[in-house]
Write a structure and sequence with these properties.
- Chains A, B: It holds the Pfam family TetR_N.
- The structure is a homodimer.
- By secondary structure, chain A is an all-alpha fold.
- The first copy, chain A, has two domains: about 1-55, Homeodomain-like (Arc Repressor Mutant, subunit A, Orthogonal Bundle), CATH 1.10.10; about 55-195, Tetracycline Repressor, domain 2 (Orthogonal Bundle).
- Chain A contains ten helices and no strands.
- Chain A has helices spanning about 1-25, 30-40, 40-50, 60-70, 80-95, 100-110, 110-140, 145-170, 180-195, 220-230.
- The longest helix of chain A has 29 residues, at about 110-140.
- Chain A starts with a helix and ends with a helix.
- Chains A and B meet through α7, α8, α9 and α10 of A and α7, α8, α9 and α10 of B.
- Chain B binds a DNA duplex through α1 and α3.
Amino acid sequence: METRRTSSSRERMIRAAYELFEQRGFEKTTVDDIAARAGVGRTTFFRAFATKEDVIFPDHDTLVASVRERLAAATPAAALVAVTEAARLVLLHYLAEGDLARSRYRLTSNVPALRAREISGQRQYQRTFHAFIRTWMTSASGEETDAGTALRAELMADAVVTAHNHVLRQWLRGRTTTPEVDFDAAMAAVVELFAPQPAAERPGPGETQVVVLRTQRDLDDVLPELKRVLEGGGSP
Amino acid sequence: METRRTSSSRERMIRAAYELFEQRGFEKTTVDDIAARAGVGRTTFFRAFATKEDVIFPDHDTLVASVRERLAAATPAAALVAVTEAARLVLLHYLAEGDLARSRYRLTSNVPALRAREISGQRQYQRTFHAFIRTWMTSASGEETDAGTALRAELMADAVVTAHNHVLRQWLRGRTTTPEVDFDAAMAAVVELFAPQPAAERPGPGETQVVVLRTQRDLDDVLPELKRVLEGGGSP
DNA sequence: ACCACGCTGGTACTGAGTACCATATGGGAG
DNA sequence: CTCCCATATGGTACTCAGTACCAGCGTGGT
């Protein structure tokens, strides 16, 4: 099969690149070296990978696309779980890679050019999440594009990507053996940060807001203070 | 003066680069072109700027250093204002640049290589803020390195940088004429997000939490509901 | 047998970035 | 005034990433 041959030579180039980068280092390895070790021509390499750096992130475009698809398939009501599941998609991919992911982490940690490339790639995830969260937030909280909402969407997209990276890095460093559990916790923290109703938000005229209290003090002790606060707020 | 001559030729190279990039585009402009227009040799260009991209971000290292210094000079009690002021330092720098900043924005928006470079640069700000916020948070909330705290520090550093970029971008696009006011609002939103006591945190035994309420309803109407909620919470 | 098409490898070119050397300028020591 | 040293500069030659182009080769269809 042609596709199998193509895929095979592509796989060989990836393996050759990782091996050579680990042995000689990224800068000391030329594309000719990689192509020669993979048994292909230099032209073939650049047909499969646009740049020398790209061979380190072979599944990047596929992963970003799968995230986009997962988000696109979500209903507005299930937006939060869609975000979590889309991020989990990425995490599971890296977990499945195993040693390859660890090798990549070693390279990106030591080679500035590769680190820069990785950061650019992460930005693509951020943009994807941002686009989804923005439309979700603006459609959920009125038609007008609130300035605060726009910023919140951006912040939340950042938080999702950073939380994912945080857990992944912990696993790559061998700091945890339960990355999925950590991931759930991290995403829960993110969702809590950006929960639909933050406490300090002031309600508009005509709206009512009920804030849940839990206190150790006797209710009768709290009431006068509450009353004072509420009257100070300007509402009868 | 030598330093003036050096500074002058550096300025000439920067101006020449911006002009040529705007005219012919980034890829169609060679380093030789820039050097020739600036009246210097190619060697001199690479002595002043490590890469062709770097000429677009001439003050980057200086800015990052000034942020680091501002943060280093902060007392733990004034950590939040230090973060805000450090970020404002960057904003004010770009505001002072004026048209140059707009020209850079145009370039980074259209040239992928320059955009990637900019993103890497922003990551340096994020790392700087992160290092500061991490030590601040861990020293403020106990000695042990809490996993949740580590993530929170990272998220907050992201938020600071993103909030700054958000406001700056609004100004670069001509969407606002009061960037400093917007900046204060954005930073306030960030600080509120990561304020020491987020609303949804459950108080430990013996602690008391008072939540500010503003409501349009009559207080007597609200009280029964509050009482019900409080008793449902398990506290007498 | 012939042709059309897709994949491949080779060659030649541009241009970024590096290494090295030669020169000028400028200031200080004698 | 002259010698000397340091620093900035310009030029040359080289490596290598990335691009463009062309030629071969197998496969499949007619």
